[in-house]
Specification:
Largest sheet: 6 strands, antiparallel
Order of helices and strands: EEHEEEEHEEEEE
Helix content: under 10%
Mean pLDDT: 89
Shape: globular
Radius of gyration: 17 Å
Low-confidence stretches: 202-213
Distance between the termini: 39 Å
Number of helices: 2
Structural class: mainly beta
């Protein structure tokens, strides 16, 4: 039932987990959003046919957290394209950020730490900083209330990492969102879809450090 976005557990979309930097005071607010869908849409296995979606917001003046998911048992030596569908809802452009990231795990499949997902510790591939592993970024711009798809890229750019290459001995990578804001509670941004698909050519993902806005 995951492809239909149900059932949520503890206000979190199926197979994803909550993460949050502890010193922000547990202000991350996860909620289940609902949309009306027809029976035909529900059975279509498309994003628009999902009756539920993830809303990510905050209850305090500072937030740094999101949701994460580890994909295991993939094929070493292959390259994978990651695509998510997201929405900044009614948020206006401002001094906040809503980003999506992806990075390989170590060969033991060790879970990424909160510090790694927050950008304050280096990822297993050595990339560091708040832009490490980033392939989608909003805040200075918004989706205007529309659902949009964002993917890893064929070639790394300052805005996007390349598709995820799993070297020999590695079969796992993690995808995570990060909502970061200071000064005012975030009403909510949203997520409802992810796909992970192998690409035909082996493209090695080169970490790119993106200058801060």
């Amino acid at each position: 039932m995951e492809s239909m976005g149900i059932p949520f557990y503890m206000n979190t979309t199926p197979n994803w987990s909550r993460w949050e930097v502890a010193d922000t005071g547990s202000t991350l607010l996860l909620r289940e959003g609902h949309r009306e869908v027809s029976q035909v849409e529900f059975l279509s296995n498309t994003p628009d046919g999902k009756p539920s979606y993830q809303i990510i917001g905050s209850t305090g003046e500072e937030v740094n957290g999101g949701i994460c998911r580890k994909f295991i048992g993939l094929e070493s030596g292959r390259t994978y394209k990651v695509t998510v569908r997201l929405n900044t809802m009614t948020m206006s452009a401002g001094d906040w950020s809503y980003t999506y990231h992806a990075a390989i795990n170590d060969s033991a499949r060790t879970a990424l730490t909160v510090d790694q997902m927050a950008g304050t510790a280096a990822l297993p591939d050595g990339a560091s900083g708040t832009d490490a592993g980033c392939f989608a970024r909003y805040g200075k711009t918004t989706t205007g209330g529309e659902w949009v798809f964002q993917s890893t890229a064929d070639t790394a750019t300052p805005e996007q990492i390349a598709h995820i290459y799993l070297p020999e001995g590695h079969d796992t990578f993690t995808v995570w969102s990060r909502l970061q804001a200071t000064g005012t509670p975030v009403e909510g941004v949203a997520f409802d879809w992810i796909s992970v698909e192998p690409v035909s050519e082996a493209l090695t993902a080169t970490p790119v450090t993106r200058p801060e806005d």
